[in-house]
């Protein structure tokens, strides 16, 4: 394949934390008997994704953004993340993060790793404090929409695109590209991925991309 673009999940793929929303709640002591209930309601289908995120953000209303960013800065990368993104840049391959996670983290990762573009979800800030409001760009199940939209914008064929992710929310992303790589993937994703990396670093993903390059 002629590889021109790679779509990347952030939480659990580029970073070691599976959910930046949950991580922030836990670090602030707001998870148990509080935000964990929102997750339960969402998983049981009792609230939709927007309502799930809205309730999460309301818990943080009034928090200083500096306190939030201090927690976000703690989140580490998976081994090989810098090597992978460095190789993409050196090869002139575009990279796009598609994440249901917090833009606080995603934008930090994008800038730090030199990733071309990112789409994620915003918790709004006014006068250096979180307002409790949200702007959702990436729903739990609409990464496929963003892949198809970006490919159309750039005139790139699905067969010239790859995706790397780990969670069930990456299903649409995998279905919309020519090469899909699961990085420690959820078991439900195994039938959808061309390659699964279970024990290793993102160096292994770079090796797979090189072979398909």
Describe, in plain words, how this protein is organized in 3D.
- The model has no long low-confidence stretch (mean pLDDT 95).
- This protein has one domain (5-19, 74-212): Rossmann fold.
- The protein has a seven-stranded mixed β-sheet with strand order 4-3-2-1-5-6-7, with helices on both faces.
- By secondary structure, the chain is an alpha/beta fold.
- It has nine helices and seven strands.
- The radius of gyration is 17 Å and the shape is globular.
- Helix 1 (20-27) packs antiparallel against helix 2 (31-43), helix 2 packs antiparallel against helix 3 and helix 5 packs parallel to helix 9.
CATH superfamily membership: HAD superfamily/HAD-like
Summarize the main sheet.
Answer: 7 strands, mixed
SSE topology string? EHHHHHEHEEHEHEEH
Named CATH topology: Rossmann fold
Architecture blueprint of SSEs:
Layout: E1 5-8, H1 20-27, H2 31-43, H3 49-59, H4 65-72, H5 81-91, E2 94-102, H6 103-113, E3 117-126, E4 129-135, H7 143-154, E5 161-165, H8 171-175, E6 179-183, E7 195-197, H9 202-212
Parallel strand pairs: 1-2, 1-5, 2-3, 5-6, 6-7
Antiparallel strand pairs: 3-4
In short:
The chain has 213 residues and is of the alpha/beta class.
Highlighted features:
single chain; 213 residues; alpha/beta; Rossmann fold; 7 strands; 20% strand; globular
């Amino acid at each position: 394949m002629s590889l021109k673009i790679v779509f990347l999940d952030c939480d659990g793929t580029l970073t070691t934390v599976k959910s930046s929303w949950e991580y922030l709640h836990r670090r602030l002591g707001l998870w148990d008997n509080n935000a964990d209930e929102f997750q339960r309601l969402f998983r049981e289908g009792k609230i939709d994704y927007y309502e799930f995120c809205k309730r999460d953000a309301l818990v943080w209303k009034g928090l200083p953004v500096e306190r939030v960013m201090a927690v976000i800065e703690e989140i580490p990368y998976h081994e090989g993340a810098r090597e992978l993104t460095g190789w993409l840049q050196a090869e002139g391959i575009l990279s796009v993060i598609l994440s249901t996670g917090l833009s606080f983290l995603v934008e930090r990762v994008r800038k730090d790793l030199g990733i071309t573009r990112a789409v994620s979800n915003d918790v709004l800030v006014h006068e250096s404090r979180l307002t409790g409001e949200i702007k959702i760009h990436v729903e739990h199940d609409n990464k496929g929409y963003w892949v198809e939209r970006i490919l159309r914008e750039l005139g790139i064929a699905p067969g010239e695109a790859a995706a790397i992710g780990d969670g069930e929310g990456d299903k649409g992303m995998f279905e919309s590209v020519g090469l899909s790589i699961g990085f420690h993937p959820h078991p439900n994703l195994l039938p959808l991925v061309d390659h699964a990396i279970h024990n290793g670093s993102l160096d292994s993903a770079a090796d797979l991309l090189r072979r398909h390059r």
